[in-house]
User: Fold these one by one.
Assistant:
Number 1:
Amino acid sequence: MLNNTQIRHCLDVMAEMFPDAEGELVHSNPFELVIAVLLSAQCTDKLVNKVTADLFKKYKTPEDYLAVPLEEVENDIRSIGLYRSKAKNIQKLCRTLIDDYNGEVPQTKEELVKLAGVGRKTANVVASVAFNEPAIAVDTHVERVSKRLGICRWKDSVTEVENTLMRKVPRDEWSVTHHRMIFFGRYHCKARNPNCPECPLLDICREGKKRMRKTG
Ligand code: SF4
């Protein structure tokens, strides 16, 4: 497992590699971001952006999503995986926003996580990106990178990964670290084919060393 100095080094290297890392889901307000993150579960940001380009023109408010039958929302997002349950959650979430929050998206993680279809990850992304609240959302990339490098244990749950990162990463770097780790995982330390031979972290990475021993 990496010590604090090594973790600091990882964060600095990722910052150098991806200085402009930021969320890639296109949105122009917190409500659109919630919908986009909800749609992005098990689906690429690219596909979500393609669908929301039209979706956000047609539906601008929670009321808009409730003014049409469920089947119509389903149809408008049908190229996205799990579109049936996502459409249902969108309408449920819109109902809650109208009934409990005056049609606005609540700002705290505790409130966000109670909305339909919004898990811890979505709540963290929205709190961090839309409201600048420090948060580390653990998605598949953040989890994989943290475990490969040995910042977290292989057996850690997503919540344990999140807690470890919140302990080890300075609070004012949580949000930016989340984005940099996603970029590092998406474009460099990829799930199937990580670029270990050219990785600046190879000398401290347990997974990288193992892979290089195998191929070497
Ligand atoms: S050495 Fe390989 S496994 Fe380790 S962080 Fe770099 S790319 Fe990922």
Note: The two ends are 23 Å apart (CA to CA).
Number 2:
Amino acid sequence: MARLAQTAGLTDIQQEILSTVRDFVDKEIIPVATELEHRDEYPQAIVDGLKELGLFGLMIPEEYGGLGESLLTYALCVEEIARGWMSVSGIINTHFIVAYMLKQHGTQEQKDHFLPRMAAGDTRGAFSMSEPALGSDVSAITSKAVQDGDEYVLNGQKMWLTNGGTSNLVAVLVRSDEGHPEGTAPHKSMTTFLVEKEPGFGEVRPGLTIPGKIDKMGYKGVDTTELIMDGLRIPANRVLGGTTGRGFYQMMDGVEVGRVNVAARGCGVAQRAFELGVQYAQQRHTFGKPIAQHQAIQFKLAEMATKVEAAHAMMVNAARKKDSGERNDLEAGMAKYLASEYCKEVVEDAFRIHGGYGFSKEYEIERLYREAPMLLIGEGTAEIQKMIIGRRLLEEYRFQG
Ligand SMILES: Cc1cc2nc3c(=O)[nH]c(=O)nc-3n(C[C@H](O)[C@H](O)[C@H](O)COP(=O)(O)OP(=O)(O)OC[C@H]3O[C@@H](n4cnc5c(N)ncnc54)[C@H](O)[C@@H]3O)c2cc1C
């Protein structure tokens, strides 16, 4: 049988990387994922394995010790990993966004300093825009940096940092009015700081506290935290790109590739849900035959597989567009929106196919059911994606009358 979600036109190297990752997922992730997730345990052995495979440096250029691969290769790897356990894809996602932002916007000194360590997986990235009072409305950020000689002093509270505890480099977006006169548009008075810190919780650097893990309904194993800055002093050479006032654009660029990544995660989780559903439907008998032989269940499987295929095609299209050097905000927004909605629907159908057993923690689908909703929120909610898509459509189809 042809597997779902095949990608035409891959190079030999891409196919080799994907087959290695798939093998790793089948042998090292799937067998332990549910147990680790139920214990909310950080998957250290899996992370070590990914490090060995070079996945932390997948898109980092070869001159910095990475594999120099495309966004498409990265997204397809993420899809495979999320098929095994979505939390593991979360561990590499923020790292990947920070490395991408450094590659695109960092000064030469910042690239030379950070990228080789990030490629090796020794420096691990997290990114921080959200605050307790805002997530969608990034322009309302209140955390602030004030210049003091060769340093900036940062104050404020951040929220929802994926890998906030385990990372040792956080790209933090704050307001920095220095040099930006009164009345400057909010998005032009923001700066991204590259904040190095010790991994762990508590005061991880003078003026910087990571209070502890937020207890979540799913997406467990990976740590999600707050971050409190109280007189945190950062040298001026740790302003991303060396110039203040560009942080909003740098973060949005990072989030745009992050959206392809979230779409890829949706594809991976949906694929796994389909696999679980189609297997269970052939094992469970009711009214004298496997439930897969009831048309209602077959229709469900047909709908699920169609959604898996459609989401995969849109995700691949968005990644290829970015790789070709073109603007891909429309495609990334559509892919993220569709893949996360379809993921939720496919997981729900697989859950229904499992009947009462889907409600038992012994079945993998229970974990997927708690994981899928995060994709509806992370890297911009469905409403935010629709705002981006709508705005871009009105640009493309401007009324000429
Ligand atoms: C597990 C997890 C991990 C995360 N990791 C990170 C991370 O690593 N770094 C980081 O910076 N952030 C992270 N986030 C934060 C995430 O990006 C935000 O939660 C998300 O952007 C939504 O923001 P919010 O929660 O403040 O919701 P709000 O912005 O308050 O939105 C609430 C609701 O209102 C809707 N809404 C808002 N504005 C509009 C509008 N104009 N029109 C219509 N509807 C609207 C939203 O779609 C949503 O349904 C994470 C979140 C979670 C749950």
Note: The chain has a mean pLDDT of 96.
